[in-house]
């Protein structure tokens, strides 16, 4: 909807676009006197008779048409309501949670299992494929963050599974050398850096969303250290952290599908406080 169309609409109109349960009225902060007027007004501007309109990046919306940060939709901040009323994020989150759970259990050596090859099946046919489908659907909802995130981690699951596939020849190529574990460590360091970047983009989101990727970053980092050192204790610690990551992923996924209409339990959304920095 354009600004012209909105200005001609009555804000008291009884019709409102239907929202999923998690959407809240987000109070956009007013212009602080210590902030630069020119830089602030170009990003967010409140106007209208009752400040019912907000302009973000040159586009004008009703404030009740904005979504707040929410882990169940992988939404890191205030955004316009998507054009398509679909939330593909829980599919990717559930796939991510199951993959992290099984990988964590194997790394923690639960039930004495030391061969992790069974993770190949879940990494490919649930973690990878489901994350890719979810990411593609997020493209059509306009959620750039979720699209980038889910497609990237789909690539992680596929590439991680390929390490253990004999037909790929990755592990076989390192036979007769002591380079394989170090190579896996470098592979995990790369994903640690990538996840750190994701964490830096979630400091204004929700506690559940930030904590999930914070623990994921720690999982990658600890497992990289386990690969470099060959220490079984470090590997088990990485597995335990991975299990914690999966639990938080399940929480976010459940929050994305649970409503008062289908569940007696609706997880609360804890939005992180925004820190204001002076000049």
TrEMBL record:
InterPro entries listed in its UniProt record: AceTr (IPR051633), Gpr1/Fun34/SatP-like (IPR000791), GPR1_FUN34_YAAH (IPR047622)
Gene Ontology molecular function, alphabetical: acetate transmembrane transporter activity
Keyword field: Membrane, Transmembrane, Transmembrane helix
Transmembrane spans: 89-106, 118-140, 146-172, 184-203, 209-228, 240-261
Domain of life assignment: Eukaryota
One Gene Ontology CC term in the entry: plasma membrane
Major subcellular site: membrane
Subcellular locations according to the entry: Membrane
Membrane topology of the entry: Multi-pass membrane protein
Sequence similarity: Belongs to the acetate uptake transporter (AceTr) (TC 2.A.96) family.
Protein name: Mug86
Native source organism of the sequence: Candida metapsilosis
């Amino acid at each position: 909807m354009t600004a012209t169309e909105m200005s001609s609409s009555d804000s008291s109109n009884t019709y409102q676009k239907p929202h999923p349960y998690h959407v809240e009225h987000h109070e956009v902060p007013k212009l602080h006197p210590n902030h630069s007027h020119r830089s602030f007004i170009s990003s967010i501007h409140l106007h209208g008779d009752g400040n019912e309109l907000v302009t973000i990046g040159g586009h004008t919306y009703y404030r009740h048409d904005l979504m707040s940060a929410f882990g169940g939709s992988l939404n890191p901040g205030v955004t316009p309501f998507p054009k398509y009323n679909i939330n593909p994020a829980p599919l990717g989150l559930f796939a991510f949670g199951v993959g992290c759970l099984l990988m964590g259990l194997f790394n923690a050596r639960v039930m004495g299992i030391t061969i992790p090859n069974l993770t190949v099946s879940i990494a490919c046919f649930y973690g990878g494929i489901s994350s890719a489908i979810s990411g593609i659907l997020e493209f059509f909802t306009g959620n750039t963050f979720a699209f980038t995130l889910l497609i990237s981690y789909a690539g992680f699951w596929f590439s991680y599974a390929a390490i253990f596939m004999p037909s790929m020849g990755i592990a076989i190529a390192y036979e007769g050398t002591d380079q394989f574990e170090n190579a896996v460590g470098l592979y995990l360091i790369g994903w640690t850096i990538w996840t750190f970047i994701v964490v830096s983009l979630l400091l204004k989101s929700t506690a559940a969303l930030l904590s999930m990727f914070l623990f994921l970053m720690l999982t990658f980092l600890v497992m990289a250290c386990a690969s470099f050192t060959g220490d079984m204790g470090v590997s088990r610690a990485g597995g335990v952290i991975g299990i914690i990551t999966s639990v938080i992923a399940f929480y976010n996924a459940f929050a994305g599908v649970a409503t008062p209409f289908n569940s007696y339990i609706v997880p609360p959304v804890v939005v992180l406080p925004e820190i204001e920095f002076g000049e």
